[in-house]
Amino acid sequence: MKVAKDLVAASATPMVLGILAESESYGYAILRRINELSGGELDWTEGLLYPLLHRLERLGYVESSWQSVTGERKRKYYRITDKGLAELAEQRRQWDTVVDALKEIWHDRVPLTVNPLEGLA
Amino acid sequence: MTEQDGQEELEAQFEQWRQYVLRRRELQPFDADELEDHLRGSVDELVAAGLSPDEAFLVAVKRMGSLDELSREFAREHSERLWKQLVLTADTGSPVADTRSRRDLWAMVSCAAGAVASVKVPALFGLNFEDDSSFYARNFTLFALPWLAAFLAWRRKARRSVIAILVALFALGAVAANAYPLADKSQSVVVTSIHLPIALWLVVGLAYIADDWRSFRRRMDFIRFTGEWFIYLVLMALGGGVLSAFLFNTFKAIGIVPEEFISHWLLPCGATAAVVVAGWLVEAKQSVVENIAPVLTRLFTPLFTAALFAFLVAVVWTSHGIDVEREALILFDLLLVVVLGLLLYSLSARDPLAPPGPFDKLQLALVVSALAIDVLVLLEITGRITDEYGSTPNRAAALGENVILLVNLAWSAWLLLTFIRRRTLFTALERWQTGYLPVYAAWAWIVVLVFPPLFSYI
Predict the structure, then answer these.
(1) Which spans are transmembrane here (chain B) (predicted)?
(2) How far apart are the C-alpha atoms of B206 and A50, rounded to whole Å?
């Protein structure tokens, strides 16, 4: 099962802000972390991640700095700002609402299973 | 293959990939840095998992997905990047290009400062704009164009012999403008003031093609340069006009009238500096702005063709002879210049290998109708040439120009026709136009140097 594209896009901002709230990080590590957290179910591309990071930076939610690692290699690290933390809290409140509502609807129900044979019968 | 070799090959592959990424306008050098770091992270992990470096590279690139998609996503966030920015020093990211553009900037600033200084030097000797306006009219281009030529020659690393020729020609221009005993109100002063800029502009052309004198491609580049330079100059003049208007009116509002400052400092200094700055802008920004002269040509060729055609029809319909009064010849000269300009600037942007199309036919129609009108004008004149025309420098110059342009356009029309009928190649037309440039130069110099004594300085 892969998570649908729209859902990935909708959850992208709180996901990245959440990861950066743990500690400062860089693109590749963020992608690894997302992969790890979702057990490989979230299909993130570079085309999603980097423009998103740049947007968050433009909005002032994160700030970046170039640091050099081994040799001439430079790496761009991102760090969450206070404004970013506030935004994260706000998004988290909204997500909690959505998740709670969904849980309420699905409460006590047996997981839906579709049996094609049953449908035919 | 040793590990060392593998590492070097991997570096080469990274470099190649980077170049590939940088070709996209949406991706800037620092994006490439970031993505490269990402790719390296991915490669390192795959190597650690047991893949060989080049296998790891292939897999990592594949995982990153197509660059098209990547740059599309970047473009959504950074839409401003799709508009090329006209900045003072091009941010190319490569240190060599950076130092080069910075050195260009400094050379331009010094040349512009030189031009500004030279326009104000005569004031030290008591000459001013009101009382000696004829001196300034004759010499105006001599203040600015040598500096533009100097900038171009510096940029082309012109040889000493070329520089010597340039200096000699500008000196000759200065002599022509000032040595003859011309009265301030004489016709010759006007004729010289019009023709000296043309002669000197073609000297600037020599500086422009300093690295390759004979190449017709370089000459074509100079024609392109001329068009873009003119457009930048007009834009700067518009900006300058707005600046002066604001300066004048805001200061007037507090009771200070800065008329003297504007007319004695801002306008002359700004104009001479703009000549150099426009040259620098064209040189530095060749690719930033889409060449605009060819675009204008495309827009106006059909309109001019229609206008000329309508005029011809009207002449035939009303059987009304063209009234060739004093200014008429100059008007029709200008018409030919415009037609020539339209022809030149569509030539300059055309792919020489493309087959003849409808636009070429349209151009032929334009040139032929201009020629037809001009022949009518000349027929009208020939009747009176002995008694009225050709007796003054004004008319002799106008007539000479008319003949020169007529010859050029007639042969161009012929070449266009043979090209449309697929008898000749398009380059024949290009070569004809670029080969004709020295004719303009020769004529302008003749008018400036020979006409005053010939017409006994009237």
Answers:
(1) 105-129, 135-154, 161-183, 189-209, 229-249, 261-283, 295-317, 329-347, 359-379, 399-417, 437-455
(2) 50
With CB atoms and an 8 Å threshold, state whether A50 touches B40: no
Contact B392, B458 (CB under 8 A): yes
Nearest to B142 by CA among B102, B183, B122, B170: B170
Which residue of B11, B17, B30, B38 is the best one to mutate when testing the A interface, meaning the one whose CB has the most A CBs within 10 A? B38
Q: Which domains does chain A have, with CATH numbers?
A: 5-108 (1.10.10.10)
Cβ burial of B230 (10 Å; 0-12, 13-18, 19+) is middle
pLDDT for res B290: 59
Subunit contact A45:B37, Cβ cutoff 8 A: no
Q: Taking every pair of C-alpha atoms in chain A, what is the biggest distance, in angstroms? A: 68
Chain B contact for A33, CB < 8 A?
Answer: no
Residues 6 or more apart from B270 whose CB is under 8 A from it?
Answer: B240
Report the gap between the CA of B214 and the closest CA in chain A (Å): 47
Structure tokens at B429: 């037309």
Quick count: other Cβ atoms within 10 Å of Cβ B94?
Answer: 11
On chain B, the residues whose CB falls within 8 A of the CB of A70 are none
Residue A71 touches partner B, C-beta closer than 8 Å: no
User: Are A50 and B74 a contacting pair at CB < 8 A?
Assistant: yes
Nearest-angstrom CA–CA distance, B193 and B444: 11
What ipTM did this prediction achieve? 0.78
Say if residues B289 and B227 touch (Cβ distance below 8 Å). Answer: no
Q: How far is A106 from chain B (nearest CA, A)?
A: 36
Cβ neighbours around A97 below 10 Å, total:
10
The count of CB pairs under 8 A between chains A and B is 52
**What backbone phi and psi angles, to 5 degrees, belong to B71?**
-70, -25
Max CA-CA distance within chain B?
99
Which chain A residues contact residue B65 at CB under 8 A? 45-47
Which helix (H) or strand (E) segment holds residue A77: the answer is strand A74-80
pLDDT tens-digit profile, chain B (458 residues): 456 677 788 888 888 888 888 888 778 888 888 888 899 988 998 999 988 888 899 998 888 878 888 888 888 787 776 665 555 544 455 566 667 778 888 999 999 999 999 888 887 887 777 777 778 888 888 899 999 999 999 988 888 889 999 999 999 999 888 888 777 777 788 888 889 999 999 999 999 988 777 788 888 888 888 988 998 999 999 999 999 999 999 998 898 888 888 888 888 899 999 999 999 988 877 655 557 778 888 889 999 999 998 988 888 888 776 666 656 677 888 888 899 999 988 888 887 778 888 888 899 999 999 998 888 887 777 666 555 555 677 778 888 888 899 999 999 999 999 988 888 888 888 889 989 999 999 999 999 888 888 877 77
User: How open is the CA angle A99-A102-A105, to the nearest 5 degrees?
Assistant: 150
CA distance readout (Å), A45 to A75, A79, B445: 19, 21, 67
Contact list, B40 vs chain A (CB under 8 Å): 73
